[in-house]
Amino acid sequence: MPLSRVRRVSLAHSVSSQLSKAIVAGDFPAGAQLSEPSLAAKLGVSRAPVREALIELELRGLVEFDLQGRTRVPTLTPADLQEIHAVRLALDPLAASLAAEHATAEFFAALEANISATKDAKTLADVSRLDTDFHDRIVKAGKNRRLMLCWTALRDQVELWLTQMQLRHQAATKRTRQQTVDSHRELLEVIRSGDAKRAGAIAREHVAGWIELLPTAPAAPQA
Question: Please, what CATH class does the domain formed by 3-72 belong to?
Answer without folding.
Answer: mainly alpha
